């Protein structure tokens, strides 16, 4: 397959996955922002959403205040923001258009229809209901994957799409976990300041919603209940999202799938990627949630992000950047 | 004034025999239903992404080519005659291109003046004495044909460089079958969907001799080209790679593409990039669409280009008047298809006639394409004619003139209902081991009342073209 084709397949998948995860994060923040909570915390949680994607400076050059309306506007519609949903869906569709011959017409039509429907949504933007719109985004991305699984040959195209999806997903899950975990810490501090910690009931009530929201953002609330049959406890949430091999958005699951996908597209430069993925897998396999917490979750995630993005870079060099011409 | 020939109705307003069934069917369809079908067609074309970028429009805007639901129908016999004429013409054109880059017999015989060839910008000296597989230069030819009356067809122009539109021929058929399946039970319409198969077979048949299993690719200028849909469509339908110049490189006079598994040899390139942009080392050095060194690989016989470099010499409008002579010279046959009588403005007598009759003639740039740079006398204003007169006097060599043909019309859905609109036809002729074509071609329709310009870049539409089986 042409390197340029592989590049388009890969980015089509990454942008689609990113649009979906952005929609998930926004939706959860939107939902939790409707709960009673300290105003500082509310602002904090919207701000986090920007820092997670390193977009705070860009945002502040356009808006004065960090609030729900502005962040939703920036993260959904703003075309100068490369991570906004509109930008991601556009990039996904443009990439798909270039290689429409390498995906089935059903996959192409799914991407194209998403884009055409989005035009209609943008025309009636004033009446758009954020939750419905975000649901629609998630639904379209699900549809893309479903149509892809249902119609495409299991060949190189299919593998490159999946590699893009999983690299993006691993990155996004790690970021969501990190932000929400930090939220939790700052909330504790705020609560201690506000009422000296004597409102235990109200606090745990809020805790529940906070963690439940995080789980929902990765479609894991029901899974959590099923696996733990327990209260929503931060440590178990982290355990589920990092270590559970069956949970499709967990870090372990992404890494394991990436290993088998890379084996399918092996070339003479893929050894290094296999080695890096193997090491990452081993470090997850031989660790557990207690070790992660004693090391510090933030530190763990920072290191994970660094490693997974290094793997993505190596992957680009080996497959996507046209190979040496001699 | 005599009304133009109507494809469906005769002078008495009765349906011609091969249109009889359709005509009855059409009378039974309500306007509302036809309107709905039209909207459905547009929606499907958009969703499927069969769109066309129009030069000069807003950046990034995509339009669908208007599709008309009334098919253009040929009776089997009439088509058979046309097909014979097309084969004859393309065969002669290929012989001509070979000749001007080798023995130059036609010049030696005094049929075409030498300066008409060698001073022509479309003549590529780089191709002199270069031998290419089967001596075929225009593997893919799109011949534009119009009808003026019963059995009276004229070739308007020969497109031998990178003719486009064939994807619309196939997609229009699919659309008609989807919208009106019942019509295909009433009529036996010759299929056209196997065109990509014929194309692939043709491309493989002109592979470099020493290659066993040729690797065929389609070379596109990229996604912003107005015909990108077609490039991608043909590559997909043939199951070959769609490449851009930057995907290819030349080493030791061989062409390779950059793949995820390393370099891979390329043997046949169906290129949809013009000669000028093919190789920055040999032609336009500012081209980013081509491949450095491609010409050297081509001349060494290590890769086939379809169409060949230098075919423009045969479809130039200044050469067009000689095509009937070519047919007689190379094949010893009488031309089956007519040429439109053409005044070559480089000749003083022809120029004088043209200047005196500008309001009746169509004047064209010899190197023009796409309906640009032309004057349609009867439709032009006095000011437009005077402006054109000045151009003509300043550069007579650049122009030819032809009488305004009464192009035939075909009933077409327009805002006011069904009304006659002018049409032409572009059949696609494939020359490889043998000459092959699918029955029919792309029918283009000028949607503006009275307009004779059918080009999609100027708001023309398309129709499905039916050749009936006996």
UniProtKB/TrEMBL annotation, chain A:
The organism named in the record is Polynucleobacter paneuropaeus
- Name by which UniProt lists this protein: Alpha-E domain-containing protein
Q: Which residues form the DUF403 domain?
A: 1-320
**Per the database entry, which stretches of residues form a coiled coil?**
none
TM helices/strands, residue ranges: none
Q: Which InterPro entries does this one have?
A: ATP-dep_Glu-Cys_Ligase-2, DUF403
